[in-house]
Amino acid sequence: MEKATVYLVGAGPGDPDLLTVKAARLIANADVVVHDGLVDDAILALTRADARLISVAKQRSRHSVPQDGINAILVREALAGYAVVRLKGGDPFIFGRGGEEVDACREAGVPVEVIPGISAAVAGGAQALLPLTHRDASSAVTFVAGQCKGLTDQNWAGLAGKGRTLVIYMGVATADDICEKLIADGLSPDTPVAVLERVGRKDGRALRTILTDLGGMIAREAVRSPAIIIVGDVVLMSNAEDRLAALAREAEYLA
């Protein structure tokens, strides 16, 4: 590792076996590791005994250290001559604010390198045997953030539907709003959806329902973040719990 360098490393979904070889090597040799709260302890255990670990964990819509503060830590430690790993859950450039940290390093004249990680959508799809694309169902995938500034003002029309898959990160708390938004933008209430909770971990869950029941299922099953929502016909090909069949049985009973 180069001293006075910041490495933005994707920690993936939590399983150390899913780290890239380069990510594991950098983690094991870093002088300083600045890590998110969602990074699994098994990955942090790969660090050197004398490495300094700095947590910048985020809690519901609030950073324990603001982003400007995180940027300042990275620059400060690198300018002091340390090899710094900024360890981020998933991939640094998929809703990880990695771009902001790269900009901060560049502005300070600090060398920076990005090492990609397996994002939640990829890991969750693999765990649930849910293909994000499929020759018979989807030839396009879109990633969106379900909890961000101006959510209600965004136009999601065309992001989901026939031949397309929509993956929503950070959408558990706003599931009802997402359902209303997608239906208002023209998506059928019967569109299949899956919720993948704690993907890539041993206690992960995969649940399946239809769009109009999304918020209800999240409440019934007490789904908690981190979780992603997948919308589209590819959900029908998954190994997720078949809530679609349960809903059909309930509808038949009530009829």
From TrEMBL:
The record's section on InterPro entries has: 4pyrrol_Mease (IPR000878), 4pyrrol_Methylase_sf (IPR035996), 4pyrrole_Mease_sub1 (IPR014777), 4pyrrole_Mease_sub2 (IPR014776), CobA/CysG_C (IPR006366), Siro_Cobalamin_biosynth (IPR050161), Uropor_MeTrfase_CS (IPR003043)
**Which principal EC class is assigned to this enzyme?**
transferase
PROSITE patterns in the record: SUMT_1
Q: What is its EC number?
A: 2.1.1.107
Where in the numbering of this chain does the Tetrapyrrole methylase domain appear? 5-214
Keywords, in A-Z order: Methyltransferase, Porphyrin biosynthesis, S-adenosyl-L-methionine, Transferase
Keyword set includes 4Fe-4S: no
Q: Name one GO molecular function term.
A: uroporphyrin-III C-methyltransferase activity
Pathway(s) it belongs to: Porphyrin-containing compound metabolism; siroheme biosynthesis; precorrin-2 from uroporphyrinogen III: step 1/1
Tell me the GO BP annotations in alphabetical order: methylation; siroheme biosynthetic process
Cross-referenced SUPFAM superfamilies: Tetrapyrrole methylase (SSF53790)
Superkingdom is Bacteria
Q: Which CDD domains did the record assign?
A: SUMT (cd11642)
- Recorded family membership: Belongs to the precorrin methyltransferase family.
Q: What is this protein called?
A: uroporphyrinogen-III C-methyltransferase
Species of provenance:
Sphingorhabdus pulchriflava
